[in-house]
Specification:
Chain B: It comes from Gadus morhua. The complex is a heterodimer of chains A (1265) and B (139). Chain A is α+β, with helices and mostly antiparallel strands and 1265 residues long. Chain A is built from 27 helices and 54 strands. In chain A, the strands form 12 sheets. In chain A, strands 8, 10, 12, 16, 18, 19 and 20 form a 7-stranded mixed β-sheet that branches. In chain A, strands 22, 24, 28, 29, 31, 32 and 33 form a 7-stranded mixed β-sheet that branches. The chains are: A alpha+beta (1265), B alpha+beta (139).
Amino acid sequence: MEPQEEKPIIYTMENKPIVTCGGDQALFTSLYTPLAQQLPREPMEWRRTYGRAPKMIHLEANFVQFKEELLPKEGNKALLTFPFLHIYWTDCCDTEAYKGSVKEDMTRWQNSLRGHGSVDWVIVVVETNDAKKKNKTNILPRSSIVDKIRNDFCNKQSDRCVVLSDPLKDSSRSQESWSSFLLKLRTLLLMSFTKNLGRFEDDMRTLREKRTQPGWSFCEYFMVQEELAFVFEMLQQFEDALVQYDELDALFTQYVLNFGAGDGANWLGSFCAPVQNWSGLMLRRPIDMEKRDSIQRGEASLLDLRSYLFSRQCTLLIFLQRPWEVTQRALELLHNCVQELHLLEVSVLEGALDCWVFLSCLEVLHRIEGCCDPAQLAANCSHTVGLWAYATDKLKCLGELCGLVSEKGPTSEDLNRTVDLLAGLGDERPETINSLLSPYKKLKEALSSVVAFERHYLELSHAAMEMYKEINRLRSARLVGKSLAEFYMRKGEPERAEVFLQEALKSYVSEGWSLPVTHTRKNIAACQKLLGRTEDYLQTCALLAGDANLTDEERKNFCQEILSFASKSTDKSAQKVTLSMTAFAQLTRLEFRPSTASVHSGAVLQVELSLRCLMPVAVRIQQLSASIHFSLEQAGTHGRSKGPPRQTNPGTVHFAQPHSSGNAVPASATTPSLELDEIQDRSPSDNSLNSTGIVCKNTHLVMRRHDSGLSPDTANSVSPPSVAVDDGAQMLKVQDVTLEPGNNAVVFTAPSGDPGTYTLRQLCATVGQVQFVLPHIYPLIQYEVYSQEPQLTVEPLSEPLLAGLPQSVRFTLLTGHYAVKKGDALQLSNSDAMPLLPSAACKASILSPTNECVGESSLSIQSSEKVTSISLPPTPPYHTLEFHLEVLCVIPPGPDRPPNERLTNGEVRHRPRSYSHPDTPMTAIDQRMSIDCPWSIYSTLLPLTFYIPFKTKHSLLSAGNRKYIQVCVQNVSDASFQLAELSLSEKQEASLELQSLNTKAQQLVCSKQSVFCLWEVRWKTDLPSCLQCVFSASFSPLGQPASSFKPFLYQFQLERVTTLYSVRAEILPATGEQQCRSGTLCGLEVCITRLTEPAEGELAEEGKTDSDGLRTTKLMYEVADSSSNWAVCGKSSGMVSMPVAANATHRAHIEVMPLFAGHLPFPKIKVFKYLPHTATQAIQPDPDSCVENDTLSLLDKNLDDPQGDTASLRSRGSVHSLGSGEQQRGLPMPRLEPFGPGQVFNHSHAQQVLVLPATDDHIMEVNAT
Amino acid sequence: MAVCIAVIAKENYPLYIRSVPTQNELKFHYTVHTSLDVVEEKISAAGKAMADQRELYLGLLYPTEDYKVYGYVTNSKVKFVIVVDSSNTSLRDNEIRSMFRKLHNSFTDVMCNPFYNPGDPVQSKVFEGMVSGMMVQVS
């Protein structure tokens, strides 16, 4: 390759750093090829100034012949043409030749370098063996030439002279020499770069700092910095090159912004010139020299500068393999340029910028397409789609501007404008002139005709939409679609527009964007009107008429559309148009009157509907109807308490408010709220918490797929409701209603003929030819019509009912479907225990179903022996008849028998009439009324519960032989009573006299208080052992007149009344003592005396005939001190054989010791009947009884030895030692039986004896209680 | 300052949207709605990266010729969108961020109001006032 002589063409970008070669040109030419090949082979590390990171760099060089003109003049800023290194080649090995010519040439070379201040040089001495051989004669050590050169030229810079040995030979020596030479060369080149670029950068910075000075020009500076960028690009440092352009970009941007802020620079004036050319970006050339020249000349417009800058950035970015950054920057650039032109107030022909942007977008896309494969493009369409959409947008603007979108085609004015716009494009660039799809051609074609425009526009739109869909930007895709729809509408092709509009609307509705919904819906309305889709159009109109986002005027217009259609043709045969009601009016509330929503058949049931009319004007409705589904009542639902289910406020149903279309909330947001309940799982054994959680009760609603049910709001074109409106079925109907905007109340009268359940299904409003239908009413609305059987109830007027006193009870008769006729009567079977009390005036009142009194009449009551007949006044069906009667429940005399009393057959006697009630202390009595009603052949049994206000107790008291009877009457009710005429009588014994010890006056018994009465029993001959007594009194509630006293009887029986024995005890101090002392033994003398001879029967029962014929009764006494005042020493009990004779006495002496000083009560003496075992009473002895029971073992012993002295104390051990053990085993046990309460009279009961403290007590015990 | 500020619920319906000038309201609605595409894209991209320490500020969603649209998403997926006029070049990224932070704080206050039902349109006067402060003042 020949070294280049001419100035390099810089825009080829095949530039390499220039290295000049001086000296032996032929030598250099021979070495050029290996040199050019080997120089870039190995990278060098380039250490940079200003802390920039070091880089590995492959060096290349453009070797040119040295010429003086190549050396830069002072002040020349060009870097590309700057020679970075100068090499002097020589193969001189002859001292003479060196001295003769070479040295001189070298000196000249160096002088010229020095003259231009260049210090980057190197001298290469090439040594060849051939040369040596050639010049054999005057051979000098070869080093001497090199040394000489070093001496002469490289003072102190010996490295500036390099030896290259045998460069053309393939020897190791040659290789070594080459590599060291190349290393030297690279090092020197880099040194030169660093130094020269550093100097350049410093100069550049200095220039930049001067930018505030008046004469500063951005274009000049631009050229300087771009020079640096070129050098970096030349060195393959694209990143650094890009930085230079970015800095320029930022600097320029800042100036524009400052200009906008009022801080203008003079040089910006040139950029503010009106835009003449809008030919778009040019990215196909690495450098657009035309633009560069115009910048250099300071004639560039803003668009030119921006275009040039971007084309350079684009080139570098593509070198850097970052095409997607190009698209992103392109979009920014285009937006920015538009803004900047606006900011700088540059005058631009209308549409010119659109052309520029459109061309630029396509140019960028083409450039990117040119450097990427299709797969890569498809994968990165998120980066390009913005440009596509922008281009589409701009083309649409241009189309509208040039009249290409209208139906009629462009006007002449439009055509003129088109011509102007096309003029600004200039001629097509030579490099795209052969391309069929160049942006230039596209734009020109699109603007040329309506058809071509449409083709190009659709192509772009669909491309953009497809890409948006590809990357899942559906909203953006729909927006493009919407704009496409607008285009179609302008073109008068509504059928193609509708699809896009519907799709967009669906998305806005589902996401709840009300304003776009309204706007899109308006477009749809226009579209549907053009298409003549009446039903859909009317439906859309209805939605728009109720849209709060529109002005009243607009809404009225849409409403009028519907109304005028409705009143247009009254052709009966024409099918009515059915529309969804949701857009027209909303059902907000439904109220039943009566609120139970349950009436008897034939009654009036009103239903009030609250409708919120969404129309802007009042609408007259010919008929508003609600269809009803009737189903027969299930059996067993006769009760009237059954109201409509799941309603907190009975009779009123509030409907969930579907948000009006103007304020739409997406379907996802209107899902039912969660109904959550807490659940706790407790262990059944100890009630501890095992787990707790939350359950959702309405999962079936919440989890429902949202897309499965289209809400009527979403489906704009509501299909005609599948449920046909059938007029034959039962309906709630109102004719001629006017619905005002806002809330309206409409009252229906519901049919209530047949009993059953009526379900409201549909609501339908008819306006002329238009029907608004609400296909389903949800929640389910039902009302019930029932037929009821007559019902009679009796309940107390006041709680509780008291037995023994006249009490009022209320009779309530619900007539149901039965009409009470004149002469109908209730027949009450009389009962002795609860007679009806006749009263003079008994009024019955008749109540309507709504509990209003509609009549009153007196009852006539006839009583016969068995039946009381109450004649009822005539009462209409489903009314209530109410009257009060007085009844009296007789208190049963006698104490309550023990409940376990058995009948002969062993069953527990059924005693339903009297029992103790758990809620009250009073004894309850259940009574039943048996009533025959005229409407039924069966008797009605009605229970009533009465309570006895008193509780009576009796007791027998004795004083020696004298007897007293005490009766206690306790008032257990809540009322207070007067008691009078208290008396006690004996049924059997006439001779008996009961003498009252009570006051004669009336007694007041307050609630929960008791009255005690006492009688002394006197008898003449014998006291009977059994007394049948009757206590009687009269009582009346406090404050009642004397006539209201009612009798109260109490029967009781007393047995074993007679006193049989008297017991006397005496305590004697120890002998020689006056008083008892604590701690000393005293004697307890017990004297048991028989007072009466036992009667025959008694004797047979308990008497015992001894072997010697003397009749005795065996008694047992026992001394027991429960309060531990006494210590019983020795035996504490004993057997007494009491002769059967009056006044027979038995004395016993027992040793006792007082444990304390003071007045001590006597120890208790108990007397029992002793019943020895008999053959019939064979009771198996308890084997342990001798151990367990002291007393009995003693008795056993006594039994064995009746003669034995019972007073002598024997130890239990001695009893056993007698060997009576084996006898015991076979013997049945004797029994002890206590005496009745009056049979033993204890004289010393509660008697006390004085006990002195022990004299020698040195411990004083004081009990303070 | 902003020309449009929108708060968008997790389900992508607007909780609050206000713009100046009002005659362009519809355009802003469309712009904000469309920006949700990019918001979702960015959320899903960020979600893949790190779910826990996600940056709430989404940055510039997309520029248009006239406006710049910025996004921000709370942890509960409520989105804030601020639209700024492109000619307004004085606004830096940091200022946008602080606007979003203010918006978020104020919205948190709204949510803390026991009478506010989450999911309802925001009607708080305080919030309104705060938004007004961030909007371009039109005379």
